[in-house]
Each structure stands twice: as structure tokens, then as C-alpha cells.
Design brief:
Blueprint: E1 2-3, E2 9-16, H1 20-31, E3 36-42, H2 45-55, E4 59-63, E5 65-66, E6 69-70, H3 71-81, E7 86-91, H4 96-105, E8 109-112, H5 117-128, E9 133-134, H6 136-146, H7 149-158, H8 163-173, H9 178-185, H10 189-203, H11 208-224
Parallel strand pairs: 2-3, 2-4, 4-7, 7-8, 8-9
Antiparallel strand pairs: 1-2, 5-6
Helix pairs in contact: 1-5, 2-3, 4-6, 6-11, 8-10, 8-11, 9-10
């Protein structure tokens, strides 16, 4: 974040959407936030990558369907090329599977275009506050899926985690990085990695991506049930 002319730290947001009216609506909404500014915009992946490299925003709001490109590809590019730039996916598709794919690609949030502008502002703030934000419908669908018989089995397995492993698991589900978990729990980064490895073994998870998805679903299930 950079300081604005009035000395307040300004949240810099980059808009990536192929609909000019959507970008205009978002700009108008953020204009009413004294600590938030739109530092650039684009309607496709290549233009967005160039603009983001120049503008150095704190967060990019990315539509899943862009002109001549896929929004998820851009989210992956941001994760790999600009890891300090968080991404929030904005889409008309309010489905749990799409939301999960977005988070797997590296997005820190997923919200429907049907939501009111104030909800999108709320999502921006929560993501920058270290949380993973999902629209209520998508979150409820994921929580419901996790509460299914197969999900209930996963919950039973999670009961086998130690107290410290459960703390790490919850932090993963909240979108915290390994460094952030280490700072929060006052342990070494290597210790966090050890716990992550143990959790994957106990839950029979093959990758960090599977760990993230399972942890997110568990956190959502707790929040919605």
C-alpha cells in the first residue's frame, strides 16, 4: 500500500474485466472509499500483466472470462510472477466448483458479479486482511458438499489431528502462507512444513493444493453449520 496525498495508506486495486461498464461501476464504488484507489485496468491477460507490472497494485480483481484469454490463467500468472499481488475473482458463475478452481489457481477470493458493490469492497478488504473470501452462495455450496457423507468421513479423520496440527490446518484454511503461520503460532517455518506434511499423511492428501482445498472446506463447514 502507498500513502495518498492526505497521508492515508491507499489500497491500490487493478481491474481486469472485458466489460467497460463493470470496470466503471467498480471505479465508482471505490471512489467513495477514502483509502482505496483504482491504479489501472485491462480487458485481457497480456494487457493486465503489463499494467500490473507497472502499477504494482496490492490486489487485482479478475473476471474469469476475458477478451481472448482465461481469467484463471491470469490468476496463475499473478501467483507465479507477482506473488505480492493478491487476486480476487469476480464472475457471473456462482458455483462451488468454479470457486474451488479459482482458489486452487491462486485466487484469495471469489465473488459473484450479482453482489452489491459494497460486498465487493468488503471482499477486497477481507482478502487484504489475510482471509479467503467466498460469496455466500458458493461458500454454502462448498460447506454443504463437505457435510455430505464423504465429507463427514473427512471430518472424522480430522479429529485425529493433534491440537497443534489442527491449528496449522485452520491457518491454512484461512489462506495464511507458511511464513504467516509461523509468525502467528510463534514457531519456525521448518516446523510448519513438518506439520503440513504430517497433516497430509493423516488426511491422505497428495499435494499442497489438496491440503488447501480440504482446509478451506473445513473452515467453511464450521462457519456455515
Amino acid at each position: 500500500m502507498k500513502k495518498s496525498t492526505n497521508g492515508v495508506k491507499s489500497i491500490r486495486v487493478f481491474l481486469v474485466d472485458d466489460h467497460p461498464l463493470v470496470r466503471q461501476a467498480l471505479k465508482l464504488a471505490m471512489r467513495h472509499e477514502r483509502d482505496m484507489e483504482v491504479c489501472g485496468e485491462a480487458d485481457d491477460r497480456d494487457e493486465a500483466l503489463k499494467g500490473i507490472a507497472d502499477a504494482e497494485p496490492d490486489l487485482a480483481i479478475v473476471d474469469l472470462r476475458l477478451r481472448d484469454s482465461d481469467g484463471l490463467e491470469l490468476v496463475r500468472d499473478l501467483r507465479d510472477q507477482h506473488p505480492k499481488v493478491l487476486s480476487l475473482v469476480l464472475s457471473m458463475q456462482d458455483e462451488s466448483m468454479t470457486a474451488e478452481r479459482a482458489v486452487r489457481a491462486g485466487a484469495r477470493g471469489y465473488i459473484s458479479k450479482r453482489e452489491a458493490p459494497c460486498k465487493i469492497i468488503e471482499a477486497v478488504r477481507k482478502v487484504l486482511g489475510g482471509e479467503i473470501y467466498w460469496s455466500e452462495k458458493a461458500a454454502a455450496q462448498v460447506a454443504s458438499k463437505f457435510a455430505s457423507p464423504s465429507g463427514a468421513a473427512n471430518c472424522s479423520t480430522i479429529d485425529n489431528l493433534s491440537e497443534r496440527e489442527l491449528q496449522v490446518f485452520e491457518q491454512v484454511g484461512l489462506g495464511k502462507s507458511t511464513n504467516e503461520i509461523a509468525d502467528s503460532l510463534h514457531i519456525d517455518i521448518s516446523t510448519v512444513e513438518t506439520y503440513r506434511s504430517r497433516i497430509k499423511d493423516k488426511l491422505n492428501l497428495k499435494s499442497g493444493s489438496e491440503l488447501l482445498q480440504t482446509a478451506i472446506r473445513w473452515c467453511l463447514a464450521r462457519a456455515y453449520h
